[in-house]
Design a protein that fits this description.
Keywords: ATP-binding, Nucleotide-binding. One of its GO terms (molecular function) is ATP hydrolysis activity. This is ABC transporter ATP-binding protein. It comes from Peribacillus butanolivorans. The chain is an alpha/beta fold. The chain is about 30% helix and about 25% strand. It has a 6-stranded mixed sheet with strand order 6-7-8-3-9-10. The chain is globular and about 50 Å long. Bound molecules: adenosine-5'-triphosphate. Adenosine-5'-triphosphate (ATP) binds next to helix 2.
């Protein structure tokens, strides 16, 4: 066995199938993510991205056969709730959960990340407060520490939620459409903080889910393209983010350009000529 490769393995999926109500939602998906790589996950609505993420976080299990291993833990032989402490997942559903706690401050929200709880119920230490403040500073929202989370702008709230996820020092961080609803400036600002995050030594491996390929910032190294539960392509982003593979994934004719190591697409023609 190649020991070096095994120890660098962040995610290993082997032949994952998931079927619901007669529909094949994931079809023989195999995927390896190594330490030092950051991946973008791209696919149309309903293509299976969330199902794949739920597989990785142990909220869903393959129907038959297949093997899931995350951070060296083989599913079926590991304590999943314990493993989840090493995985951060930031999605808009988290914002919704905090709607029931309008009086939590940004600092409290970040602190709650230590316990993966919605709200703070456990004792916090001086060190926890120091760490939360450092994260607020890193995301340039330290001045908002004592402001209620619900009064923050979308962009500020999104940063607070990522800071919250980092409070438990995850080794794997899932950013599920983090720029949704952000204006151009807030989006670029958030992307800059994500770039900083990947540059930090011992930072988490990032899985970045998006519908907007220009959000694939230079530090995202790899991409997985999925369509109807089938992997269309996976690997180094320069080899995966190509016109033909993206057309196959998104089912519209596009042109692709790279600018400052970021991919940009334009739709060539309207849906009347959609490729099947
Ligand atoms: N528990 C379930 N039972 C039945 N079907 C499901 C279940 N979960 C997901 N699906 C179906 O699986 C398909 C893939 O859903 P999934 O949420 O993984 O897509 P997605 O790529 O994340 O989409 P989006 O970009 O819209 O979030 C969809 O057709 C969805 O209806």
């Amino acid at each position: 066995m190649d020991q070096t490769k095994t120890s660098n393995n962040v995610i290993s999926l082997k032949n994952i199938n998931w079927k619901r109500n007669g529909n094949q939602i994931l079809n023989g998906v195999s995927w390896e993510v190594q330490t030092g790589e950051h991946w973008a996950l791209l696919g149309l609505n309903g293509s299976g991205k969330t199902s794949l993420l739920k597989m990785i976080t142990g909220y869903q299990w393959p129907n038959s056969g297949g093997e899931v291993s995350v951070l060296g833990n083989i599913f079926g032989k590991t304590n999943i709730p314990e493993l989840r402490k090493s995985i951060g997942w930031v999605s808009s559903s988290l914002d919704q959960e905090y709607q029931s706690r309008p009086n939590d401050t940004a600092l409290e929200v970040v602190l709650s990340g230590k316990f993966a709880s919605i709200g703070l119920y456990e004792e916090i230490t001086e060190n926890d407060i120091k760490k939360a403040n450092k994260l607020l500073e890193q995301f340039r929202i330290k001045h908002l520490s004592n402001q209620f989370i619900q009064s923050l702008s979308q962009g500020e709230k999104r940063k607070a939620m990522i800071a919250r996820a980092l409070m438990s020092s995850p080794r794997l961080l899932i950013l599920d459409e983090p720029c949704n609803g952000l204006d151009i400036y807030s989006k670029e600002e958030l992307l800059t903080t994500i770039e900083d995050l990947t540059a930090a030594p011992n930072g988490p491996t990032i899985l970045y889910v998006t519908h907007h390929i220009e959000e694939i910032v230079p530090s995202i190294t790899h991409a997985l393209l999925i369509n109807s539960g089938n992997v269309i392509a996976k690997g180094d982003k320069k080899n995966t983010l190509t016109e033909s593979l993206l057309e196959k994934t998104f089912r519209v004719p596009i042109t692709l350009e790279w600018d400052n190591d970021r991919p940009w697409i334009r739709i060539k023609s309207m849906l009347a000529t959609v490729k099947n």
